[in-house]
Amino acid sequence: MAAQIKSLNEECGVFGVWGDPHAVELTHLGLHTLQHRGQEGAGIVGRTPAGLRRHYGFGLVSQVFAHPEDLQALRGPAALGHVRYSTAGGRILENIQPLLFRFADGAVALAHNGNLTNAMSLRAKLEASGAIFQSTSDTEVLMHLLRRSPKPTFVEQLKEALTQVHGGFAFALLTEQGLYAACDPQGFRPLVVGQLPSGGYVVCSETAALTAVGAELIKDIAPGELISITDQGLNSQAYTDKTQLAVCSMEFVYFARPDSEIHGVNVHQARVAMGRQLAKEQPAEADIVVGVPNSSLSAALGYAQASGIPYELGLVKSQYVARTFIQPTQALRERSVRMKLSVLKATVAGKRVVLVDDSIVRGTTAKQIVQLLKEAGAKSVHLRIASPPLRFPCFYGIDIQTTKELFAANHSVAEMKRILGVDSLGFLSVQGLEDSVGLQTTAPHRGLCVAYFTGQYPTPLDDYAANLHDELACLSMDLSEVNA
Amino acid sequence: MAAQIKSLNEECGVFGVWGDPHAVELTHLGLHTLQHRGQEGAGIVGRTPAGLRRHYGFGLVSQVFAHPEDLQALRGPAALGHVRYSTAGGRILENIQPLLFRFADGAVALAHNGNLTNAMSLRAKLEASGAIFQSTSDTEVLMHLLRRSPKPTFVEQLKEALTQVHGGFAFALLTEQGLYAACDPQGFRPLVVGQLPSGGYVVCSETAALTAVGAELIKDIAPGELISITDQGLNSQAYTDKTQLAVCSMEFVYFARPDSEIHGVNVHQARVAMGRQLAKEQPAEADIVVGVPNSSLSAALGYAQASGIPYELGLVKSQYVARTFIQPTQALRERSVRMKLSVLKATVAGKRVVLVDDSIVRGTTAKQIVQLLKEAGAKSVHLRIASPPLRFPCFYGIDIQTTKELFAANHSVAEMKRILGVDSLGFLSVQGLEDSVGLQTTAPHRGLCVAYFTGQYPTPLDDYAANLHDELACLSMDLSEVNA
Amino acid sequence: MAAQIKSLNEECGVFGVWGDPHAVELTHLGLHTLQHRGQEGAGIVGRTPAGLRRHYGFGLVSQVFAHPEDLQALRGPAALGHVRYSTAGGRILENIQPLLFRFADGAVALAHNGNLTNAMSLRAKLEASGAIFQSTSDTEVLMHLLRRSPKPTFVEQLKEALTQVHGGFAFALLTEQGLYAACDPQGFRPLVVGQLPSGGYVVCSETAALTAVGAELIKDIAPGELISITDQGLNSQAYTDKTQLAVCSMEFVYFARPDSEIHGVNVHQARVAMGRQLAKEQPAEADIVVGVPNSSLSAALGYAQASGIPYELGLVKSQYVARTFIQPTQALRERSVRMKLSVLKATVAGKRVVLVDDSIVRGTTAKQIVQLLKEAGAKSVHLRIASPPLRFPCFYGIDIQTTKELFAANHSVAEMKRILGVDSLGFLSVQGLEDSVGLQTTAPHRGLCVAYFTGQYPTPLDDYAANLHDELACLSMDLSEVNA
Amino acid sequence: MAAQIKSLNEECGVFGVWGDPHAVELTHLGLHTLQHRGQEGAGIVGRTPAGLRRHYGFGLVSQVFAHPEDLQALRGPAALGHVRYSTAGGRILENIQPLLFRFADGAVALAHNGNLTNAMSLRAKLEASGAIFQSTSDTEVLMHLLRRSPKPTFVEQLKEALTQVHGGFAFALLTEQGLYAACDPQGFRPLVVGQLPSGGYVVCSETAALTAVGAELIKDIAPGELISITDQGLNSQAYTDKTQLAVCSMEFVYFARPDSEIHGVNVHQARVAMGRQLAKEQPAEADIVVGVPNSSLSAALGYAQASGIPYELGLVKSQYVARTFIQPTQALRERSVRMKLSVLKATVAGKRVVLVDDSIVRGTTAKQIVQLLKEAGAKSVHLRIASPPLRFPCFYGIDIQTTKELFAANHSVAEMKRILGVDSLGFLSVQGLEDSVGLQTTAPHRGLCVAYFTGQYPTPLDDYAANLHDELACLSMDLSEVNA
User: Fold this and answer.
1) What is the pLDDT of residue C350?
2) Is residue D478's pLDDT more than 50?
3) Average confidence (pLDDT) over A463-484
4) Which of A39, B60, B347, D442 shows the smallest number of beta carbons within 10 Å?
């Protein structure tokens, strides 16, 4: 579903190329493919004959790069691009990435997807010793740590900096000498490297972007791994050996494109498996299965396959998702939502409907859809969520940093059923989710991070720890209870 | 599929409101819902306290109305809007609709969907007697005829003008006194009227736009019908009694939204029926059925249902369809196409695929998709087209005015199969199409226009007749043969 | 002074080229030179290999032609351009000139400077017989008359049309066959023709624009003259022989550039002569002479020369005249005016100042300047106006169509002196003005139109006659009295 | 003359307000008044209820602040603004000022006019210890020094930082606590403080901007002085006592507005005095005196007064200075220059002309003007320059950092006369310049910096010293010789 409707937002997409004469054009195409990962702003740094040059701004890739000259000015054999979604308050131009740092000894571009759990304390410490930050994002901390490292080479400085930041991160850096990419020790955020027909290399957030530019996947960057790509080729090393895979499960549930593969698992197929498993765990008596377009169609297909209930097209999503002006009346505001999503009355009228959605965040959209279905004559609506209830914040790069707005953190299943106005409500189990994805690993939770469902975080929470404790107290929850 | 990929384009969407304080805002929402009918330009005329005022420009509705003040300047109790797709050469601002005519005795706004077959000869005659046209579109002819009519009232002048124009048309006019809407005598182009909760009226191209603004359908405007809406309410009359229903079948096949209903038939359900019928007429041995998103998903679902072959998600369409710059190399151009449509390799690899598309125009997109599927490892591709072969031009409002580029007009089925690289190829029959739509009427072809398939046009072609004759001669076709 | 401050506005500048490969670029330069004649909008029509093409919009020439491609699309061997100032209410895109009419038998571009006195009645008559106007400007009337003329050739149709319109006009028309230019029978509005080094021809409003593009003046287009420029060269003919020169005297007083020549008289020198004559007619005891920049500097120089009082720089006009936002308080609004014009305190403090201004329209600007001078310490301010009191409307192309706002129409000299807060006030006499300009002619008023000073109009006022009569009655004026 | 024509460019204008509810609107007006000091970019930081907020961009003030909301978002009781001209290469958005630094303990905005001679070495040292710069301008160095200062208060940190930077500078800083302004120890660059009717304070580059917003001058900020303005009022202190006045003489010659006063001397009157002195030092036999508009009109007036030769208007400068596109041919490029400046043929034809210009930088513009005058029929042209020959670079804030392009550094007076095509050529003497300005001081050169004329720099040149030595060697000049 569109970012405008749902409050769950990925914090970025990264795309870099080294060693291809069309590096900038390929990065432009790649960012289009990753546009679903961030719509607030975009930027590209190109390695031109005159050094690293940047073009960036607010809006979609097609808005930021509105004129051919915007790309031409960046042309060269290497480039790094970024699409950004930001949290409220951080909407300043200085936060649009890649950040570009110009030093007497050369420039460095930096792009990031994720969230650092100790960024605030690191920044406070750095500022106390005279550091000046140009952005308000956590990303910039890495560069200050790198520049203050006494190590003799850029790569060693970078390795030292990477060991000092905590949380979920996928960093990409571009200099005149090379393209560098690194994953956090849990591999929370996806990052892959591929090769172009020209022999050039691509580093990006999802394999779908590799495919879009005609590159072949070389590998998923591993937890704790640092990749260096220079004119001498690709070099890999571990900057830490304290790693344990914990891929963000919401990438499989909602964020990633269905045509991407994460650690060998196709996202669409994982979603079909979730839908199948959901049908087993939460069966329903119904005439048709309808998915919320577009992210829930795979799970709906799986539910239909496993349950034998016919898959149907019951909701139509507008192809032209437009930001609409604030409407003068409540009635107009509601119609504005309907403009984005409409019910196929002919399909649902008189039918018992299984409505499959990938997740519930605040519950408002689900409530509206249920209401639309009922108005269109659905006899009953059985809501099935292809993931467990979202009850805890994420600190590794998804924009849920408070439990206050989480529907499932504040209501029991019975309450949710009543509020949403559905005839029945069922969620996928955590175990079901883990089995459906089925990563090949011996790591806990089969290599997934399921903290937003269980409250069990794979790493210390650093600057957020106190805050989380207070919030949960406020909800009269405690971790032992919820995880029982 | 997106207009950028396919060469088949509808020539417009119309949306008007009378008698609601939020007429302009509703028209804005309505145009968003009709955006698929035209992306070249948009405009709204509002009935403000200072008279009719217009805002218009090139681009999507969200681009033309980029600032809240663009709408504010138009506010009032009535409005008329339009989205436009234009043919090459006509890309001048003066052609963006609604056209606005300012007379000493009041202003008139005019919006049109369709194509007039005698516009050129009427225009020549009018110019010879001193008329000056401000646009190069056929639409403006109506206003000149109206203004030269000696009849005493606006409605009578309009009626007289309507009897002079031929072809396919859905006109809407707004004055300070009323909102007027009329359909051609065959009802080629859809036009409906509905009512808002406020009591106000809406006239628009598709019922989905009624739903989007919370209006209830009153009726499809009938062939030869003229609707007048004033502060005294809605009045209907026939401007001619020589009518015979011949709805453009491509509205059902491709153009209209799945959640619209045309003369009582839901478009999605008509497409499912076409898919079902196609499975019967053109069966295939295969493992999965894949539809080309988004317009062919309904037909694919029908094919899967009737054939028993599982429906699968095999192609992913980018949510962010962006105009891309002209790419410097052929390889980049191809990647640019892949950015818009990608294959779900995990779904199709090793499978025998039934690929369902709604129609074939030039064949280039189908060829690319087939190639993508084969590259992704599809064992075989059986292409099934949910409509008959497009072999003749349309002169009633679809942008196919030449047979030269029509794939099926220039090649036999065997040749097409070879060129596309498919393992088998099958089209829906004309009879099958007519039965699938199933309009309740005794008109020929069950009330559909199927001229682009058969070459049998429901009306004289006027200014186009000679031209068509030449083209067919050129193709060594003649109508008797092709319709045998 | 800037158009933003003063309410006296010329209604346009015209610039056309025929027969030069850089016709469009030259027209662009020429319009920049004529920018002082209109800042609301601009446009150029170029004769491209694909026919006449237009680019136009609101704003300064540099804003309308903001990208090199805006000009490139128009390139060819002929062009016609226009800069426009419009009266309130007419601010619609359709009024930006050149108007471009596309006929089956070829396109015609039309640009105009002036005002037609019988446009309203002609338009009413034309509309009654079915004509449709695309703009609300009077200019378009000419084209309708031309197209309805039964004459066999374009030039004869144009001649017939020219005899039907009354008032002040300088028309330029561009077709694929030629560039045409015509003046009204009194020659109210200036229009000249010149020749480029390339042999090509230029038609434009002022000689300064000829100089700017390197063209030599051939001649001022005479009252009642029609110039036709084709590939066969320049042809001149009279479309009427009822002519009598009455050049708008405000062109000499205020509008035209100082480096332009009108009917052989340099504008700067005419202004110096006005200043000299003013010193004789209205002497003053003072220490310095200060002119209001920039239009009054020439007259101030003449006053200083004739009086022997030193010329000084007492007012500084901002080089960057910017439209400023509406300011929230009165104090801010006043400061906003001071930003555009400031006093050189060091020059005026303790001095008796002769302040020379070219004219007084509403009196508000003069009042502000006087106040600024007094605040800066001027001992006394003797205001001298280098033209007679403006008391009557103009109907030939200057934006004074009502006497209500004319300061001198509503107050005696004594009242004006008191309101403005000056120590003395003197105007140039009508005779003095006529002698200062000194056109070589036997026409009344030495070939000038002085109607805004005397109320004696050189032509019937047609559609405006009744209106003027009412206004004067309202002011308790009658023509015999004021001209006594 | 316009920045587009002449290569001499001031590097900025500064305007700040503390303690007025309309601080942002006043800053906007003030920047318009200072627009002549920089046209590349502009910015304003406002102290809003939500902290310091910034709006900035490339272009004129009217272009950067194109919508009312651009100002509204900054509203509050204090603001700091800047207009910038930059040297080639530095044209990146990050360099547009005020720079805004966001710290955990509060934000700081920084605006600067001048040039630091030891910025490069300071930056190298800071980067070596881990500092990261966001811009490439020298301005940012101050903030890094300030943040690394161990002093306990902001003001003490700022004082320490000010003693470490060398060269010419006028800094203004805004925090939530106050507005701060400081001048370099020589007072190279002007900076004044004034008071508004509201009691609020203004700090800005020129007194003309005080006048524009209705503020009264309190004082010129003295060499080595630091002004602190807080809610407790204005506080002044010396951050160093090693000061000696050396105001940039080019401020009097060319940069500053004629209505500004610097250290008690009105700029217009200083220019008139220069013109008078020039007439004494370099008399000419001639019929008229013509100044190059607009900056040389004051000196021309002085020359006319002292010589008794009549002052005349001989050159007209276009009011609408527009950036023009690169023209396809040399002829068009030349016409493009003429568009900006044209000769009043009627004034100069047949006359012996004294042409007064304020300075000669590269000589190209002067050459063009002389040619225009000769073409217009001037019998002879006697060029008089109201300043001494520019032969040495400036390192204190004027954009002449190389002697290679300086006309007078590369040619003798005789050669210059021949190249320019004038009948005689004369410059003002250094002594004449110093006496004409006549600052009340016992400092060397009567308190002026005349280094660009003499090569004697008032301070060590730090990072530029080696470079200058090489350049002079290259020109076969040495300081002892040129100053002999």
Assistant:
1) 98
2) no
3) 66
4) D442
Name the DSSP letter for residue C48. Answer: E
Q: Do D269 and C346 touch (CB under 8 A)?
A: yes
CA B59 and chain centroid, separation: 18
Residue type at A148 in one-letter notation: R
Q: Which residues of D touch A (CB under 8 A)?
A: 92-94, 101-105, 123-124, 127, 130-134, 136, 143-144, 147-148
Rounded to whole angstroms, how far apart are CA atoms D82 and D112? Answer: 8
Q: Is A357 annotated among the ligand-binding residues?
A: yes
**How many Cβ atoms sit within 10 Å of the Cβ of residue D208?**
25
**Interface probe, candidates B319, B321, B323, chain A, greatest A C-beta count within 10 A:** B319
pLDDT at B6 over 70: no
Closest CA to B359 of B254, B248, B289: B254
Class of A265-440 per CATH?
alpha beta
Task: Note the Cα B211 to chain centre separation in Å.
Answer: 19
The enclosing H or E element of A88 equals: none
Best residue of A259, A301, A333 to probe chain B, by most B CBs closer than 10 Å: A259
Question: D132 vs A131: CB contact, 8 Å cut-off?
Answer: yes
Count Cβ–Cβ pairs < 8 Å, chain A vs chain D: 54
What is the CATH number assigned to the segment(s) A13-243?
A: 3.60.20.10
pLDDT tens-digit readout, C209-239: 999 999 999 999 999 999 999 999 999 999 9
Q: Are B60 and A320 in contact (CB under 8 A)?
A: yes
CB B161 within 8 A of CB B195: no
Best mutation target, C10, C216, C261, C268, to test chain D (most D CBs within 10 A): C268
For the record, the structure tokens of C351 come out as 């001095």
CB contact under 8 A, D33 and C325: no
- Are B134 and C134 within 8 A, CB to CB? yes
pTM to 2 decimal places: 0.90
> What is the interface size between A and B, counted as CB pairs within 8 Å?
158
- How many Cβ atoms from other residues are within 10 Å of residue C308's Cβ? 8
The residue from C12, C183, C394, C449 that is catalytic is C12
Nearest Cα of chain C lies from the Cα of B26 at a distance, in angstroms, of 24
User: Per the CB < 8 Å rule, is A259 touching B335?
Assistant: no
Cβ separation C143–B132 shorter than 8 A: yes
D235 Cβ neighbours under 8 A, 6+ residues apart: D227, D228, D229
Q: What is the mean pLDDT of chain A?
A: 91
Chains near A (3 or more Cβ pairs under 8 Å): B, D
For the segment B213-240, the average pLDDT, to the nearest whole number, is: 97
Chain A closest-CA separation from residue B327 CA (Å): 8
| 3-state SS class at A469 | helix
CB-CB neighbors (< 8 A) of B74 in chain C: none
Q: For residues A464 and B98, what is the distance between their CA atoms, to the nearest angstrom?
A: 56
Of chain C, the percentage scoring pLDDT greater than 70 comes to: 92
D12 a catalytic residue: yes
Q: What are phi and psi of B444, to 5 degrees?
A: -55, 150
Domain boundaries along the sequence of chain C: 13-243, 265-440
Indicate the length of chain D as a whole number: 484
Q: Do domains C13-243 and C265-440 have the same CATH topology?
A: no
The strands making up B233-238's β-sheet, listed across from edge to edge, are: B99-103, B106-116, B167-174, B178-183, B225-230, B233-238
A447: left (phi over 0), alpha (psi -120 to 50) or beta: left
CB contact under 8 A, B134 and C131: no
pLDDT of B86 above 90? no
What is the complex's ipTM, to 2 decimals? Answer: 0.90
Which of the residue ranges A454-458, B235-239, C293-297, C338-342 would you say has the lowest mean pLDDT?
A: C338-342
